[in-house]
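We append the chain.
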Amino acid sequence: MNNRLAFVRSLIVLAFAVFVLVVLLPTIIEQVTPRTLTPVTCFIGSEKDDFLKNPEVVRLLADRYSLEVSYSRVGSIEQAFIDSSQVDCLWPSNTSALEIYRSQHQQDFDSGRISYETIFNSPIVLFSWTPLVQALVDQGLFVVQPEGYTTVDTTRLIELLTRTPKPTWAEVGVDDLFGSFNVITSDPTRSNSGNMFYGLFANMLAGGQVASLEAVRENLPALRQYYENQGYMEESSGILFERFINTGMGAHPIIANYESLLIEFVVQHREQMDTVLSQIHVIYPTPTVWSSHPLIARTDAGKKFLEALRDERLQQIAWEQHGFRSGLLGIENDPSILSLTGIAAEITSVIPLPRAEGIIEMLDYLRQS
């Protein structure tokens, strides 16, 4: 009997030892051994700041990919011209920046030393307030689609914005607002969402087609007139959205900005979600333009970061917590997960931006005014 008990005790001790070796020891070693993380430095568009600061994103990049990302916020077009020799990657918010940067480093792209991939997309949309939206739906300018989201014909919108004289708010059915019908943007010479709306504007002035360099040049006076009529403009998409939220319909009746900003705001203020969504509406221009977010990897560390951003969980966080639609094939974004009304399941009516040389010429012309 004693021998049997001794044998059983030996088995228990052996099993415990195996458990420690197989299960606990790796964890203990990991905890006492300093983890080596590969540093990644990047220039980014400011709208990706909250995503990269998200604690789960930071943890996943460290735990799964041994990466620690530090970054500086730099305007998208500026990224194409700034000295990038000391960073591992650039992450602008439009393909124009990619096109300009590639033209300056074509040999490195051709050889594969520099690689890129569009990680996120976000459409340019309009944001407005319930009373104004209802009035413009009644006037037929805004249309509520059967799926529950609202659209506006971009050609008709631009025609109103360029009409001489511009129609008053009262003339488009909104009696409580002072002044003329308008869509407020961030400063297109400093902010990506602003210059993307102006690129869309240029396309509509060119007959609803992608504006050639010649067409952009032909319509520069009309673009400048719209620009000069705006008065002071915010330098950042995020600041414009904050002003829109904080100052209300009187100061900011309609703005053009990224779809992602409202989704991110609502997710971060869940306790106010019902109030926000009862007051603020997303209106999808048809067509609109994509704000694409290509990550340009210059070094091995940048390429590791690019590979990490394909992670399905990171893509899920980007959509569900920050409103970025995936730019990767095979990853779908389900609006029902967000529990938000008025968000389009798919963005199907999209027109490309004018080529980079047209955008640059437009911005140079506006800066001269």
